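Input/output pair, single chain:
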Amino acid sequence: MSHRILVAGFKHETHTFSRVPTDLAAYRARALYAGQEMVEAMRGTASEIAGFLEACDANGWTAVPAVFADATPGGKVTREAFDHVLDAILGAVRAAGGVDGMLLCLHGAMVCEHDDDGEGALLRALRAELGRALPIAATHDLHANVTDAFAGLVDILVSYRTYPHVDQHVVAGEAAELLRRTLAGEIRPRVSVARGALMAGIDHGRTTAPGPMTEMLDRAAALMRDDPKVLSTSVNAGFSHADTFDTGPSVVAVTDGAHAGIGAALSGMMDAIWESRHRETVETVSVAAAMSRLGALASASAPVVIADFADNPGGGGYAESTGMLRALVEAGIAPAVAGVFHDAAVASQAHAAGLGATIDVCLGGKVDPELSPALPLRARVEALTDGRFRFSGPMLRGQPVDMGPSAVLEVNGLRIVVASKRFQCYDRMFFEHAGIDLGAQRVVMVKSAQHFRAAYQPLACEVLVVDSTEGLTTGDLKVFPYARVRRPIFPLDLD
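Output:
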């Protein structure tokens, strides 16, 4: 039997302390595709949407493409943006004359102006119009803050199991297969979730080395392997920069119908997560410590990759902190590259001056100069681009990117990529699209916390992860004025 399956994506990881609202412009700046435009942009990529479309083809389903909306992490999603995406989904259902199921690509840590549980609000609105019987399968980022409300409204929920997230396509296939089995009457999926007194833990979800997250994923896989009624398991590290009641790590199971023992099994996993709360596989260092280490690696034959952890746009950072860059400039480190800085004014200034011009700029300090002051530089405009390319690395390979007018500024052998839009630097194309040879650098500085590892760690002689006071994504959660998280909670109160 041919089914009509709605395919849609509505993603956002919300940093509730950010000054930058996530409005429709923020979605258009990264990805906002409707209907057939979504199919053309996403088919053949390593994304969940592509995985959903391929599953529709394989199962003989008629895909009903609705919308794919994805904005760089930032402040709360505006009501206008939320309603725009919701209307696109419901509009596609009505235009199709109804659907038999849904495949939704979500994040799990969306906070809206009107609702702390963005995904829960989306499901409530869908259920209000379409009813509870319609089977809905969703994928989540492993940094999801999964709420009880959302778990009670979705039928199938599968989270990524890799960080960097290189398995979106695979996870989409798993969710689609469970939807197929549901439509065939083979299973009656039900979602259960458990969480503990933590708002941070499981090594922030890192899977690039053995540690708490890989151990918990093994335990989750064993639960599914040993109990045929457990159809899927997910381990979520949570997104701790969201000030919401349910912020923090969680474990999720999809079972075939009610499962009397699943609550105890998930609670046991949360107990193990609590016991591992102090274990981390990555040590962050200060700017000063990073500079000292660079001195010791001066004769290295491969680049040192520096991750600007505290100003990670992938976690809501402004991508304008200049602390680490200032140290590189003052030390005369070259050849080196740094990026991607979000400063539309400087990018525009470079384009106006033209290729080869020498200009005086004040880089950064546009959104919150008190958090990170601007850095005055005299720079040569080495390259100008339109900021358009497709990802080439393990994450989201093939997906199109438009950073807007962008420039490469050169300061005594150090090249700085400046863009008009804000992106986490997790693909080599952020540099290579401008003709930069990464292998020829002494230092490659990226504004990223962990995702960069998939593309950049293979070329590095060493990776340094720098946390400072000049960024919104610092790991020191006690600097933020949390008011809505459940208390007491680790690490704000407990330990």
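The chain has a mean pLDDT of 97. The radius of gyration is 22 Å.
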